[in-house]
Structure formats: C-alpha cells, structure tokens
Specification:
By secondary structure, this protein is an alpha+beta fold. About 35% of the residues lie in helices and about 20% in strands. It has two domains: about 10-45, no CATH class; about 105-255, no CATH class. The radius of gyration is 20 Å and the shape is globular.
Length: about 260
C-alpha cells in the first residue's frame, strides 16, 4: 500500500504549490480539492454493494454498519458531535438488529442520528431549508423520545407515489409510520440512489410545522425535494396540490 497511498511528501508539495499560487495573487487549492473529494465520494457511492432485504450476506451487518455510519461522518456529523476520528464516532453507533434487514417490505436501512438538529444536518449535507419562520416538530411520541442513534428500516415511498396522506390513511397498517424530516434527510444522505428523474421527492408526514407557539398537526408536513440543486426541505400544506405529483412519494418506516 505504501506505493499507492497518499504520502506526507505529497501533502507538503501541495502546500508549497499553494503558497506559490497565493504569492502570485492566485487562489488557493481548497476549491480544487473540494471538487476532487466530491468526485471521489460519488465514485465510491456508485461502486458500493447494494444490499436488498433478505439478501445481506452473513457477517456483513458490521460492514453495512460502518458504511452507513461513514456516510454521516463524511459530511461532518461526527466532528459536529466532538468526535476526532471515525473510530470514535463509530463507537457511539449501535449494532444493527439481526431481523431489521429481513423484511422485503422495508428494504432500506437507515441510521437515524437525532443528536444533531435537522437544520444543522441539512447544512452539512448541502440541503436548503426553506422554512424561515418556523421549525419542524415530530408528530409521533415515540419519535420525540429518541435521543440517541438508532437503526430504522424503511421503504422509499414509491408505493404511495403521487398520493396524498389522506388517500393512504385509509389502508395504512399498524406496523408502518411516516418518516420525520430528520429521518428523511438521513435516508437521502445514505441512500441517494433511491431518487431518479421520475422520483424526486419524499413527503415526510411524520413531521409538522410549528410557527412560534402555533402548531397545526395534520395540516402541514415536510417535503424533501431534489428536483433542483441544491435539494430543499420545505413546508408542505396537506391541501397544496402543487406538490402532489407523480414524482413524489410517501416513505414509511417499520414499527418494531
């Protein structure tokens, strides 16, 4: 590995090049490195194995745990919580429950990280929050009690693509519940390939919007929309038909 790994000598050489550029009145190398790092991250995402429910190889739960945790670490979540290394952050992440990856109705595994605010998580992930006068609050008591990282199993929402919350309420089962805005953003960070040109948004109705002290449960929710760059999280009125398109779905998580 010594011949192919990035060396201290190369780092020192890049610093010398940057100093010369700055002395000539040119910009530093930060933007170039940002572009390179983003490309390398995207390349890794594309080449990672894609596990489906019930098909996870024996012994690979730990591999999957590290992969999902690193998705959050790579955008700065661990450092935001005071961890100085990935290994330190990983120690705080629980093991994946054995049965959580076995249900084909909920094929996506997501690491939920409630120790960081939704607004700050969006900032780290490059997502714009377009709710200047309010905050998202969780609708479900169980979601509100979560204070430490946990694993959740979800589906991506295509099952309810183009439908309103009122339409799916009639046949919802007891073992599923809508995602919160935080859970939806975590899912997007860890599973970006669930989105495509014909599926570009998730209605996260496990969350409502509070403006000041006024809360209107059931009338508003969060929408994660990736139609434009950057992706956005916006308030979604339940009767606002502008957002109920075939390109949006309603993801659910499994209640265990």
């Amino acid at each position: 590995m010594a011949e192919t790994s990035f060396s201290d000598e190369q780092i020192a050489e890049m610093r010398e090049i940057e100093e010369e550029r700055l002395a000539l009145g040119e910009s530093g190398l930060k933007e170039m490195f940002d572009v390179l790092i983003d490309r390398l991250k995207e390349d890794l995402r594309e080449r990672r194995p894609s596990f489906k429910a019930g098909e996870l190889p024996d012994g690979d739960l730990e591999t999957l745990r590290e992969m999902k945790t690193r998705d959050l670490w790579n955008i700065g979540v661990g450092r935001e919580l005071g961890c100085v290394s990935f290994e330190e952050y990983l120690k705080d992440i629980p093991v994946i429950p054995n049965g959580l990856t076995k249900d084909p109705a909920f094929p996506l595994l997501v690491l939920e990280e409630p120790r960081i605010s939704l607004r700050r998580l969006c900032e780290l992930a490059g997502i714009t929050m377009l709710v200047p006068n309010g905050n998202f609050v969780n609708m479900n008591d169980e979601n509100m009690r979560v204070k430490t990282p946990r694993w959740i199993a979800i589906h991506d929402g295509r099952l309810y693509q183009g439908m309103t919350v009122e339409q799916i309420n009639e046949f919802l089962e007891d073992n599923r519940i809508g995602l919160t805005a935080l859970q939806g953003v975590c899912a997007y960070i860890q599973n970006p390939r669930i989105f495509s040109q014909d599926y570009c948004g998730m209605n996260l109705f496990g969350t409502c919007v509070m403006e000041g002290r006024e809360e209107i449960p059931g009338l508003t929710s969060a929408l994660l929309d990736i139609r434009n760059e950057p992706a956005t999280v916006v308030r979604l009125g339940r009767s606002d038909n502008r957002f109920y398109t075939r390109a949006h779905g309603i993801p659910m998580r499994k209640v265990v």
